[in-house]
Amino acid sequence: MNKPFYPAIVFYSAEDDGYIAKAVDLKGCSAFGETPEQALKEFETAVELWLSVAKDDCAEIPEPSPITVFG
């Protein structure tokens, strides 16, 4: 079975002096990195942990949003 792909929004945070990758569909799921690439790598771990906790708690797990790539 393929792992679901949850899209993220990546932005620079001056307050944190680094990049944040925030899940579009998973409330409270985000990760930090010194570069956008690091933030996305950490985001993969954050999603796995978020899904694991939700499963353990028998919480509803949302379907990933469809993504569209332009360009």
Keywords:
71 residues, alpha+beta, Double Stranded RNA Binding Domain, 23% strand
Explained architecture:
The protein has a single domain, classed as 2-Layer Sandwich (Double Stranded RNA Binding Domain), CATH 3.30.160. Strands 1-2-3 form a three-stranded antiparallel beta sheet, with helices on one face. A hairpin with a 4-residue loop joins strand 1 and strand 2. It has 71 residues and is α+β, with helices and mostly antiparallel strands. The termini are far apart. It has one helix and three strands, in the order E-E-E-H.
Secondary-structure arrangement, i.e. CATH architecture: 2-Layer Sandwich
- Morphology call: globular
Total tally of structural domains: 1
Low-pLDDT regions: none
Q: Tell me the major beta sheet.
A: 3 strands, antiparallel
Number of helices: 1
Q: How large is the share of residues in beta strands? A: 15-25%
**SSE string, helix = H, strand = E?**
EEEH
Mean pLDDT: 93
Q: How many whole angstroms does the radius of gyration measure?
A: 13 Å
The structure class reads alpha+beta
| Order of strands across the main sheet | 1-2-3
- CA(first)-CA(last) distance: 30 Å
> Tell me, what is the CATH class?
Alpha Beta
